[in-house]
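BUG: 3D viewer hangs when loading the predicted structure for this chain

Environment: internal workstation, default settings.
Expected: structure renders.
Actual: progress bar stalls at 90%.

Input used:
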Amino acid sequence: MPHTSAWAISGDDAKVRSAPAAHPQDAKAAWSHALTQAPPGVSLRGSRGRYLGSVFVPVSAQKAWSLLTNYSQLPSVVPDIKRVRVLSRQGNRVEVEQVYQAPYTFGLPIQARLLFEEQAPRTLSYSLLQADQIRRLQGSWTVVPAQGGVVLQHRIELEPNLPAALLPSYYALNETSLRQALESLRRALLRG
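Structure tokens produced before the viewer hung:
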């Protein structure tokens, strides 16, 4: 009998590994099982302040959109956002003040004023108006309908106002925070 392999997906990064299988049908069954049993993990690509993160959530697009645009609720959902205040709303443009405090801020509260542009129910873009230790911040959230739910995609470009010696630590801590934020959003949407 020829040697075949069974495949399994493991870990948050959905890494594929192979293992010997006795029969070809075992390989197919193992692959099918792995696809349906894989954890919903967060994906984050990019480096040095330019990232694309995504996570699948088995909820409606409307539910995801409602959470993303409920600005005052964000501190209870996203760990690094400590305070939010909506300053103004004109049509689909919302000016928001946020205070961040996380390991990537080195424990310091960082205040930022952002302009959000809502293109319901799919895209929420944002750009920096003014901030304490941030040179550039812009990005978007996109709600992508998928079979059985939605994929939340977060594009972000961020340049802190820090000495060059701190940048490697900052970016490593920020990447961890971005993953945690996506996972926190997923959990909040699943809770209801």
